[in-house]
Fold Lysophospholipid acyltransferase family protein.
Amino acid sequence: MSGPERRDTRTKQHQERLLRALLGGLSHLPLAVLHGLGVLVGWGVILLPNRQRRNALINISLCYPQLPARQKIRLRNRCLREFGKTYLELARLWLRPSDQVLGLVREVRGAELLQRRDGEGLIVLSPHLGAWELAGLHLAAQGPTTIFYKPQQYLDDLIVAARNRSGATLAPITGRGIRSLVQGLARGEYAGILPDQEPRASKGAAFAPLFGLPAWTMVLVNRLARKSGARVIFMFAERLPWAAGYRVHCLPAPEGIDSVDDAIAAAALNRGIEQCIAVCPEQYLWPYRRFRRRPQDGPKAYTGGVGDYAAIETAERWRRLSLKAEGDG
């Protein structure tokens, strides 16, 4: 290992120790305090011009073009306050005993959908909505579960341990990980997947409508469902006001999510994501650049100034160009 590589490794280790110490301290704070601190962090992101703030407003403007500008900005601000809560509450969700964390679930709507039938496996899709870490813990508490997982650059060991502590097995986003999901479903287990990030593999994705716009969407779900015969549902944990806990929602997947036609299946998957977001749109991860990849090298969405009205104008122009390109195609 060269000198610069050793320095980079030491720097990363030092940063990880600091992060672990910070998370350890935060984990002992009450949920109400963590959410209060998260709101302050959110306001910091709102008040200081930055790309996270811009990207969230661009996405909201793309997905809700009918909203007046002030309502788009208001929804963006609510989203960023929830965004702050998401990251501050991780300390408690990751590091407190699992029974304490699961005790924060106040209600489960659609719980009957989580019941496996006649030993068949069940594919559970959890978008980046509300407290997705809690949704994964709740799923694993229902029975043997394999969760599709992307290894992280920082705190990977901590995250793996946190997700394992209620019994989940983590499968990396590789061919080996997919085999683990298939094997678990064959044993009648749960498979947990985050379905709303852009896949990298060109063979494992298709463009499909999301809020009326083409989004690069995974086709793993329909292939897993066909291969295993497993049902597919959606599940997420809504954050309740005033740190009152969480409400878990289970929703049936739209028809066609197991289609042999990847385009049909991907469109059904995105309809399911839209239905989840509609429950609590302010808790979705709007800063994520969901429309980054475009068909036929179309115009880029996440460009331009970071001012609010500049971001809205960028989104409106991009949406017109994108829909025109779709129509011409």
The chain is about 50% helix and 15% strand.
